[in-house]
């Protein structure tokens, strides 16, 4: 029982810790203006144009930290604070999302692979636990195995997300430095924002892998008892 309590404490606390890190870094550096005094929307537009992505739009979207790149519409969407803000955090996040647009343009392999996994990952996320719970309650190990396979697809999606996000952050750093959007000590601050954001993906992937392994162990135990 004690081991289970520790396990569930870990899978709950690790994502919460990662969220606190990213919110703390964003809150701190959203108050630090960049020396170039460039708004997030302008950062995105400048990097896009420098890379020949004139067809990719930059739009404002509602919410807090809802920034993303939409590969279907070819649009970088920035939350209001980052669209209008000229802080180090706004520049970092805008550049990161443009990093995904550059990946899309260059047909980055991991991004393409992640896109192909989206339908399977969605099914895995929505139905894996339903199948697993039916299997546990009814004692059908086959249902548990099927649920585990669906969950494994979702876990692979999260693991593939890691190189996609880290690569986008690396591209972001290269762009904001080479274009003079951030300078000198701002590089360290920008990296802190990007690294904190990456922690959320690392934490989510780690928890998903741990949960998958736990279910595999439970399934093998059911097989031994049959």
Report on the architecture of this protein.
The protein is mainly α. The protein has one domain. The chain has seven helices and three strands; from the N terminus they run H-H-E-E-E-H-H-H-H-H. It has helices at residues 2-29, 40-50, 80-84, 88-105, 109-138, 141-178, 186-225; strands at 57-61, 68-70, 75-79. Strands 1-3-2 form a three-stranded mixed sheet. Strand 2 and strand 3 (75-79) form a beta hairpin. Helix 5 (109-138) packs antiparallel against helix 6. The protein starts with a helix and ends with a helix.
pLDDT averaged residue by residue: 90
Q: What form results from the Cα inertia axes?
A: elongated
**Structural class of the helices, strands and pairings?**
mainly alpha
Q: Which regions are unreliable across 5 or more consecutive residues at pLDDT < 50?
A: none
Query: What is the radius of gyration computed over CA atoms, rounded to a whole number of angstroms?
Result: 20 Å
Main pleated-sheet profile:
3 strands, mixed
Quick summary of this structure?
This protein is mainly α and 226 residues long. The chain has 7 helices and 3 strands.
Topology, pairings included?
Elements lengths: L1 H28 L10 H11 L6 E5 L6 E3 L4 E5 H5 L3 H18 L3 H30 L2 H38 L7 H40 L1
Parallel strand pairs: 1-3
Antiparallel strand pairs: 2-3
Helix pairs in contact: 1-7, 2-4, 4-6, 4-7, 5-6, 6-7
């Amino acid at each position: 029982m004690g081991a289970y309590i520790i396990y569930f404490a870990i899978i709950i606390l690790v994502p919460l810790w990662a969220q606190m890190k990213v919110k703390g870094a964003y809150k701190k550096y959203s108050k630090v203006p960049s020396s170039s005094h460039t708004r997030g929307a302008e950062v995105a537009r400048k990097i896009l144009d420098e890379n020949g992505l004139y067809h990719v739009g930059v739009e404002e979207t509602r919410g807090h930290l809802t920034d993303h790149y939409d590969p279907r519409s070819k649009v970088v969407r920035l939350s209001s604070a980052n669209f209008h803000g000229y802080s180090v955090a706004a520049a970092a996040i805008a550049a990161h999302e443009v990093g995904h647009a550059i990946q899309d343009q260059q047909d980055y392999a991991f991004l393409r692979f992640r896109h192909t996994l989206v339908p399977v990952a969605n099914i895995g996320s929505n139905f894996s636990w339903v199948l697993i719970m039916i299997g546990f309650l009814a004692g059908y190990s086959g249902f548990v195995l099927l649920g585990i396979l669906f969950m494994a697809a979702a876990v692979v999606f999260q693991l593939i997300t890691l190189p996609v996000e880290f690569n986008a952050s690396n591209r972001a750093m290269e762009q904001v430095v080479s274009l003079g959007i951030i300078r000198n000590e701002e590089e360290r601050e920008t990296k802190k924002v990007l690294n904190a954001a990456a922690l959320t993906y690392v934490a989510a992937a780690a928890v998903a892998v741990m949960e998958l392994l736990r279910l595999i162990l439970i399934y093998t135990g059911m097989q031994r008892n049959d």
